[in-house]
Amino acid sequence: MSSAVSAPKASAPRRPSLWSRLPVVRQLRQSVGLQRGMLVAGLVVTAAFVLTAVFAPLLAPYGYSQLRDLDGAFGAQQSPSADHLLGTTVGGYDVLSRVIWGSQTAALVIVVAIVASIFLGILIGLVSGYFGGWIDRVLVVVCDAIYSFPSLLLAILAAIVISGGQSDLWGGILAAALSITVVFIPQYFRVVRSEVVRIKGEAFIDSARVIGTPHLRIMVRHVLRNSTRTLPLIVTLNASEAVLTLAGLGFLGFGIEPTAAAEWGYDLNKAIADVSSGIWWTALFPGLAIVLSVLGITLVGESLNDLADPRLRSRRLSKQVAGRVEQTSVAAPTVPGGVVTDELTLPGEASQLDTLEGEDRS
Amino acid sequence: MTAPTSTRTAADAGAVAVRIRDLAVSFATDAGAVRAVDGVDLTVRPGEVLAVVGESGSGKTVTAKTILGLLPENATARGAVVLANKAGTAEHDVVSLSASQLRRVRGTDVAMVFQEPSAALNPVYTVGWQIAEGLRAHGKVSKAEGRRRAIEILGRVGIPDPDERVDHYPHQFSGGQKQRIIIAMALVLDPGLIVADEPTTALDVTVQAEILDLLRRVRDEFGTAIVLITHNMGVVADLADTVAVMYQGKVVEQAPVGELFAAPQDDYTRRLLGSVPRIGEARARTAERAAARPAGWAEAEPVVAARGLEITYPGRFRTPGFRAVQGVDLTIRPGEVLGLVGESGSGKSTIGRAIAGLTKVTGGSLQVLGTEMHGVRPRELRPVRPRIGFVFQDPASSFNPLLTIADCVAEPLVVHGRARDVGAARARVDELLEAVQLPRAYGDRFPHELSGGQRQRVSLARALALDPELLVADEPTSALDVSVQARVLDLFAELQAELGFACLFISHDLAVVDLLADRIAVLYRGRLVEEGTGEQVLGSPSDPYTQRLLASLPVPDPVAQAARRVELERLRALD
């Protein structure tokens, strides 16, 4: 037996480093061709968005509510010039500065909205899916009811309830974020619940029940960790929706006061009249900022979705027949009483071959 | 129809339905290219049944799919698959055909029968429509004509009242009938070759025997050649004319069926045949065990005692529930192995789950280790749990994919406070892994890094972690290849002899149960129809169902199987 154990096969396969197992990083390494292009483009745009938000105070030439500098007032609706690279708005703000500062507001709303909704959504999804019964039915009906409302209407309602419609930076951010939260919780709930229901039927949950594992331990140790697979995808898609909802709220006049923070939706709203009078810069740049940030995040989300599904994931196709035949179960004769060295499959490849063979003997 | 890519005279190689030359197929996977088929040469003559056998991953399904040009997108093929039409007038090399040329060849020259009949039929169309669809795809056929031919072919594959049933939907047919319809769909264009990929694996033994009869008739009456992909040596012995044994992408041996079973040439073939369980093999071992029982053993308190056990699954919204088990009496005494056999839906798994407290008992009495399970509260069940071990059927899903093997095996120890954490349990875990003949180092691996057989070993280790008095094994080897199954069963028998736990061994395979069990109980539609030692139940069955079950089981020996077929005919005539 000792000789068999010391054989190279018995040594554990090298585990990929923690870095390469992180979500996104793992998918990036896995992707090829167009899918890789999409993911990289999305990551670049998203990174630019995040960096702009973080370094807004350094990048922006003026403050978000600055109307004048040492030379006097900026003046309203000035066309792009050396002083104001993207011109000024009808209210006399610098467009470039507002766009840059606006990314900070958007990023804050994304973070607050996701943090607020993800914990509650996962918790009720887990409880609802695991225990089932009437709690589950009630929660599903409530979430379906929330789905049936137009999300913007709900967000407006929440904004009015939380802050009376208008407020300062944090009040506005919280109002926007929490109103989005109301819409997001059902999404996390739905995704986590369906995963939990699927996992609850797997044999390893039964095997945990057979040995008498308490419910809490099953939920945390076995169910929760296995049901978070699709969360990175939902997070990215929700992030882009958060940006859109914030912009929508601002556009409708439920956003943040221009003196409290820069906000793209608000600027767009104020630029409506400019469009017909040939002043293009006040509407174009905030609009572009919204489109690019949403596009970047959505590209990342969609690529993650494609890469998560083995049927959608593209792989490098060889022109020639290549590769080696995988070792299957009965390579070497049995060693009487020894260890089974003849059953060896490499990680990942065994399941691949199984699906190809499509043999199910249940 | 199509311009033949190559025309050969019949004298070239005699009449041939399909000739595969030096076929190699590889797949692009996340881990790089993997070769599934490596230089395969095969020839099938018209009216011949070629069985391709091998374990999962040996490349037999990929070879078969290549004949129809059904390889997935990530596959690359090399070599030649020359397919002749039934008349032998045209030949095509499938590997180099374009998509539209392939479509014309499929159905007319070659057709396929799939493993899972329920999945291969479209649930929203009638079976008549689905049969006629094949006709419509290959030429203009009127509705009436399509229907007429569908009825004709349904009659020929043995569907009763075909002119009425042609308008029925797939869910109105049983599994065996669905497979007959799939075969009818394959036959309707009268192809020269049918590729049948595990056509009976999803079916019960008694139904399997009927489908094998039908396939034999297809060969004889339609003159169709059949490529039969299977892992079941009994099916091979029953139906095949020639056998090709595949291993790691290569054909290691090809011979007429009688020759192969009588005198296998290749080492791998010999091992494969050696690991097929046969009824009656373990009689001596069972007798030895029975003789070694201490006096008064039969009177000892049984580990499991069921009296009039009933289990009903609740119906939805006022519909009556489904009664899975009714009026079952059985006992398992300490250290005894009871084999429970039955077809799918017979309630055998339900009984196993009820004993482990996973399914509610709704009637009668079920005593497990002195605890009454009927109406038991979860709190009362807790002290019983550590005394029962459970081995699940599916090695793929019975482990939490995020925990290492050591974590999984240590879980029962930690939950029941025998160890503070995984680290403290590691010594015992290593001991258990060695008991199931796995290296200690495997404790640090993840479940997906192990093969199916290894995972079942770990499953056994986990079930035995708390030294249970009773082990429930629910089809522990039915997802494994024969060769792997043989070794897991050996290990199982060894551990049982050593540790002396009582065991309920559930399986649909009579031969497997006979190998391990002291006594065998046969379930049929939720009722216990026969119980006794292996010799009684399988040697001279008294119940007509058991007789039929036994006669339907194909034995891995073509000569003996021919004799059994006659016996099965006789039993059917009695019904």
TrEMBL record, chain A:
InterPro entries in alphabetical order: BP-dependent_transpt_permease, MetI-like, MetI-like_sf, OppC_N
Membrane topology: Multi-pass membrane protein
Example GO biological process: transmembrane transport
Keyword Transferase in record: no
Keywords from the named record: Cell membrane, Membrane, Transmembrane, Transmembrane helix, Transport
Entry-linked Gene3D superfamilies: MetI-like
Domain named ABC transmembrane type-1: residues: 103-301
Subcellular location field: Cell membrane
Entry annotated with the keyword Lyase: no
Segments crossing the lipid bilayer: 38-60, 106-131, 138-163, 169-189, 231-256, 279-301
Entries under SUPFAM superfamilies matching the protein: MetI-like
Gene Ontology cellular component terms for the protein in this record: plasma membrane
Similarity comment: Belongs to the binding-protein-dependent transport system permease family.
Protein name stated in the entry: Peptide/nickel transport system permease protein
UniProtKB/TrEMBL annotation, chain B:
Residue ranges constituting the ABC transporter domain according to the UniProt record: 18-273, 306-550
InterPro entries: AAA+_ATPase, ABC_Ni/Peptide_Import, ABC_transporter-like_ATP-bd, ABC_transporter-like_CS, Oligopep_ABC_C, P-loop_NTPase
One record GO biological process: peptide transport
SMART domains: AAA (SM00382)
Domain of life, source organism: Bacteria
Similarity annotation: Belongs to the ABC transporter superfamily.
Gene Ontology cellular component annotations, sorted alphabetically: plasma membrane
Record CDD domains: ABC_NikE_OppD_transporters
Membrane topology type: Peripheral membrane protein
Keyword entries, A-Z: ATP-binding, Cell membrane, Membrane, Nucleotide-binding, Transport
Compartment(s): Cell membrane
Cleavable signal peptide: none
Molecular function terms from GO: ATP binding; ATP hydrolysis activity
Protein name as catalogued: Peptide/nickel transport system ATP-binding protein
